[in-house]
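dude i think i finally got it to work??
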Amino acid sequence: MLKGEFEISTAVGGEDGIAMLRNLGPFAIVISDMKMPGMDGVRFLKRVRQLAPNTITLLLTGRVDLNGAVNAVNEGGIFRLLMKPCDESVLTEAINAALACYHQRKDERVRIELPVHLYRSAASQKLQSAHTADISSSGARLAGLEEPLELGEVLKVECGNRRARFRVVWAGKQGTATAGQAGLECLAPDVDIWKLSLGQLENDELLNHARVVQCGLLPQEKPPLRTLDYAGHCIQARMVGGDYYDFLDLGPGEVGFVLADVSGKGIPAALLMASLHGSLHSQCGTASNDLPQLLASLNLHLYKHTADQRYATLFFGRYSDATRTLHYVNCGHNPPVLLRKGGAVERLNATATVLGLFSDWECSVVTVQLEVGDVLSMYTDGVTETTGDNREEFGEARLLETLRKYRDLEATHIVRNVEDAVEQFRIGEQEDDLTLVIARAR
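look at this
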């Protein structure tokens, strides 16, 4: 239907699509059906997101419910969920919007000079030294090249002790302003070779601004509660990130627990996190008793003031000392796990879709009672999706095992022990922000 307007590659199933992505990718857009041979569309698009984080994904389905939509956004990171049968004009509009989103992502660059070495083939010696002029998660612009690179050439770039394969997408011509420069596209965008240190960032105005914006956004103190011991911590994978947690003082014996995960990474995610924080704090004083109104207003703010592909998953729980109750709304976030004193496990599942992606938004509020000895764990996917040997994920089962082991400790020590367990499990560098909030009823 669309071959006349777009350059298209097709696959017969999920595994075939993954192989095509590895051999021919990265692609700007991947479109998947929900039902395919071998794996469903959500599972397939989750793997696409792991292999090519900048690729924009669309999902076609014949039917969907709230949980299905939440899983599609959280697991697959989809840009659009389209209902079948899908009119050609609707699909074309979605693809054009996705292409614009893809190019916008690629344009989110940071100007910074990092020394690099270039290899033309696996067997060759170092070709030459150069430096970056700017970088992004999808590529880089190099400067200081002593010899020109060829358009379409694939080479290895080394920065520090990290390497990745890149393709030359443009090369500056002699006698022009871009002489000695080249634009490279990363062929393994899940491998971040631009691990920036504090010293490298000191002179970069944009990153310094982002660091200042994030400084102080995470809670500096905890409103006192008589019946609940609680603590939280965030470990960012980069200098700035998109995880956010907060403890809101809603009056004597009332605390609002907030945990959010903003889509994307680095500076764009950090700035959206700051926008979410500011909007939430400006409204919670007047609307905290009406969670649907508060969160609908927050959703509209993010929808109007952020790019199309930006959204946030968020958990908001209002706890009352007097009644030991937690009234919560889960906006497409990982379900917090409530480990009861007797060993039973309850999951605080989604009651709404994510924030900022749709203008029309509704939620429901659920109430749970916390008894002495219960332990509630709120976390971002950086905890459970941390990978070990053979890319196996840490997962919810290991999280629960750790909670059971340390449930009698203070909340601060439970947080630290979970973080230690994740660190010991992980193979390689931290890939995503890791945020954990523990609340222990007493």
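The mean pLDDT is 82.
im so relieved honestly
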